[in-house]
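From the shared-data thread, chain only:
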Amino acid sequence: MHYLGRALTLAAALCLLGAPYRAEAAPTASTGRTYFQGNFNAAFTPNLALSILPATRYEYTRTPGESTGHYQDEFFVGPTVNYAFGDFTLKGSLWYYLTSSYAPSGNTRTQNVELIPTLEYRTGPWRFSERLMFHNILHSTAYKTSTERNGYSLALRSLTQVRRALSPEWGVSAAVEPFLGLVEDGEAPVNNSGGFWGEGLRLNRIYLGFDWRAAPNLTVAPQYIMETVHSDDEGVMAVHHYLYVTLSYTLVLY
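Structure, as tokens:
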């Protein structure tokens, strides 16, 4: 419990770090959602794996308004490499990313490429990591013409995480992750919910949860996410509350 108290104190500190990203304006919507993701890896060598990550999202409550139900599916696939040197580990992933979003106004799909460098540092029971996800949007069916559908925008997701091992099987973690639009498409209108992103702060997430190593190659990680949606003109437009559960499995082939 002593270690758990320390971890929760650190989590609170991370939440405070996330506070500057949240605007003062009152949110116009609040939701309750689930987000389930698989993280499956086929390891060909100690340094090279093929990663496959399917995911689905569901909205149960929305205030004001009606919940949207099953509103999005995701699929990532691509290689991941990692190299350890001393207390540090450097990882790199290049993934194809497909999203399918469902709404009464119509369904949309986006095709993206994710470039993801990650640096981890371990000391005793602590692990500190910084993951940069360069989110390259290349195609979106949210638009009517082919000129608008085929374009380019770039966003950066910067995930700063701290984890403390409580035992060989259990750990607690906290993280903050702002989503920043860096490059806007020159042809298509900005559509941050299913198209090409605009510049500036678009989302911010705060994570708090734990993980359980159920078997040597199998881990379950339930987390709470508070996600704020930002607009340049209106400040915080919505606050989404997620139960986020990740199931990770590695198949060792060497």
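Helices lie at 2-18, 146-149.
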